[in-house]
Amino acid sequence: MSAAEYTQPNYGDPAELHRLAEIHESAPLNWDPEYVVTEERIQIWVRKLEKTKTDPQYCYLVARIAGELVGTHWLEVIDEDGRSVAHITSLWVHNDFRRQGIATRLKQLGEEWALGQGVEAVKTQVFFANTRMIAFNQSLGFEAGHVEMEKRLK
After folding, report:
1. Where do the H-state alpha helices sit in 3-144?
2. pTM of the predicted model, to two decimals?
3. What share of the chain is helix, strand, coil (3-state, %, to 5)?
4. Which long-range contacts (CB under 8 A, 24 or more apart) does 134-141 make?
5. What is the pLDDT of residues 47-72, one digit of tens each?
6. CA within 20 to 30 Å of 9's CA: 18, 64, 83, 92, which one?
7. Domain spans, the chain
């Protein structure tokens, strides 16, 4: 395991919230190189992130090493057909800090939070081509559910 510190975001730092929103909004670039990140979308995510500070349905965790942001994890509790389920909105670890246990620890902390919320399950969505993340999730006990497929028409 790394020597990372795990905390909530610094909600009083607009630059940190912007960076967290930018990280989340930029994720589709990993599977869709034509995706366009816009400041408008980043600001939408900033507003959603601000909600995680006070809404008990959300958990947002960050990992820092020597004060540097190196990982994030965002969960939201929703009612899914009468079951309380925590959906992972985002999990990110900086490329330079991967394979050091940061994502594992973030997920463990997220699961501990979810248990405290009375959640029955944790769910996540992973793009089919992201085989590393699929294998990682399986190593943590996640099982495949359904496969969503898309055909682009333009």
Report:
1. 14-26, 39-51, 102-116, 131-139
2. 0.81
3. 35, 25, 40
4. 136/103, 140/104, 140/107
5. 999 988 889 899 999 999 999 999 99
6. 83
7. 5-139
